[in-house]
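quick q for whoever's on today - can somebody do inverse folding on this one?? i tried earlier but teh output was garbage lol. tokens:
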């Protein structure tokens, strides 16, 4: 004897209760991920979005592009975004100073050497002495003497003693 027969329970009503419970649980189970995704999008917009943006800008900075800036939300990412932007501006300024220094050193060291190479080439007969060549040498000599003050006084090209 089964319990349904013992307590006189209709099999159709119990089956109906089972089916409605399964439907109810399936509806809640399908709504759960949707609600979770909605909360995830809200959290992304509020706090994680600026962090992802800063991560992308950091990748660009490591590749040599120092122009990226973060635009964080005032409540969540504002102070971090402001500090990040100050850091990016400092890195951009340092990179510009480095490039300027490399150019200045190259001008100070390279032009006098190039001047002497032209003179050697004229002496060897590789370059013909012409007015254009001498004008070029004079122009390079003028530019080369402008950069000599970057190194210690009384020294020649790039720290070597003696005349350039």
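ok took a stab at it. sequence:
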């Amino acid at each position: 004897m089964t319990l349904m027969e013992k307590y006189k329970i209709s099999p159709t009503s119990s089956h109906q209760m089972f089916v409605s419970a399964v439907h109810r649980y399936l509806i809640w189970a399908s709504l759960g991920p949707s609600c979770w995704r909605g909360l995830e999008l809200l959290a992304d917009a509020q706090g994680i979005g600026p962090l992802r943006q800063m991560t992308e800008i950091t990748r660009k900075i490591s590749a040599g592009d120092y122009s990226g800036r973060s635009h964080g939300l005032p409540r969540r990412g504002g102070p971090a975004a402001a500090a990040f932007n100050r850091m990016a501006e400092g890195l951009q300024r340092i990179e510009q100073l480095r490039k300027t220094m490399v150019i200045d050193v190259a001008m100070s060291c390279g032009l006098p050497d190039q001047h002497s190479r032209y003179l050697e080439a004229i002496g060897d007969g590789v370059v013909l002495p012409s007015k254009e060549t001498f004008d070029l040498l004079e122009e390079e000599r003028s530019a080369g003497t402008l950069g000599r003050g970057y190194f210690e006084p009384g020294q020649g090209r790039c720290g070597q003693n003696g005349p350039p």
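fwiw The chain is about 75% helix and 0% strand. also Residues 146-157 have pLDDT under 50 and may be disordered. so keep that in mind when u check it
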